[in-house]
Automatic annotation (TrEMBL):
Taxonomic classification: Eukaryota, Fungi, Dikarya, Ascomycota, Pezizomycotina
The organism's place on the tree of life at top rank: Eukaryota
Keywords: Membrane, Transmembrane, Transmembrane helix
Coiled-coil segments: none
Protein name: Uncharacterized protein
Membrane-crossing segments per the record: 35-51, 72-92, 200-217, 303-320, 332-356, 377-398
Amino acid sequence: MNEISDAFNSSSTIPAPSARLGWQDSPDRRGTLDIVWSCVFSILLCLWTMLHLNVPTENDTYITIFWRKMRWLILGILAPELPMLFACGQYASAKRSVEDFRSLGYSEEQWTLCHAFYADSGGFKLQTEDFQAFPITAKQLHYLVNHRYVSLPAMSRDEIWDKSKADGVAKTMAFSQSGWLIAQTIGRGVQRLPITPFEISSLALICSSMTTLWFWWHKPLDVRTATVLDTTASVVDILREGGEAAKEPFLDTPLDFIEGRVYMSSKWSRHVLRWIRAVRLQKRPLDRIPNDRDPQANLRQHCLLGIGTATFASVHLAGWPFEFATRWEQALWRGGCIGVWVLLCLYGSTEMAVCYRENYEVPGLESGKGYKMRWPHCLLFFVPATLYFMARVGLLVVTMSSLASLPEGAYQTVQWSDLLPHL
């Protein structure tokens, strides 16, 4: 009887309710995927927003344009100083163009930085009676307007900007994501939490991308079609009146004598360039302005470029005390940081010396001499460039390999409540 009673009581007993909790904070941890995704998303968003490539040809398909942009995206990761260098040079050319047109009496509304960038990106093509249409730069347009071969295009800044595909939402997202990554890095530094090499490399690329975007801020984005300028003059007439500078055969367009070759590829000898044209590796005349256009910058613009490149190199040095899993990773990281710093300083010093001590000459309207690059400058350009590329690859290898073994503190999140003032 007692057994039956005990069985009944045990079967009718109501189980105790599970423990209930109020508001709970999420775990103060983050995973490897969280680190990678946040950095990769920030890098791709900044680089894609930063790239302002020149006007393509009418025959370029969307696939061609996409892969061209992808190549520059990869270049922006491997050597972010190159897009910054080109952007600085194009900004310098645009500033000079505005001053040149001011000297002809045109107002600030008639020719702006936007007009100059549009011209230098291949936005204007010259159509003569005896030659196919070819792109002209802002300086070449200034020469044509000054000699009354064409009239200044009656296009307002708004009309040019209407051709641009600049997306304010994408730029806002890029700035927001970059700001969040920077805030996270600062917060981790304040709370003495390890900052991973992946985050440091991402922060350096973002700083470089933002500097490049600043130089290209007034450049129209993803313009697909150029504006054709008609002239009654022939190319023969323009060359005949160009004087001694116009007698040399052109390599890019018939108006090379006005400005000369200002592309990164022009650092090769003219013999190599002539061979490239002879085997038809590049169309002649050019049907678009190459994206490696690198006009000369003045001292102030070189200083701005130097600040941008120095910031990129300095950010990597922040990872100097990081505890790597192996000694070879630590040695490769520190060696890469030093290599990037030294090589950037060497190239910057050489470029300044070459520009202001006239170790090489660029053909122009004032001198009929051809492009000349001295062998010392060739060595001081290509040797550091090769070593720099090796240093950058080393840093990228360590950046990826370090994710396999990180300190425990690297997975802790920033406690923002400790950083905010409270009573």
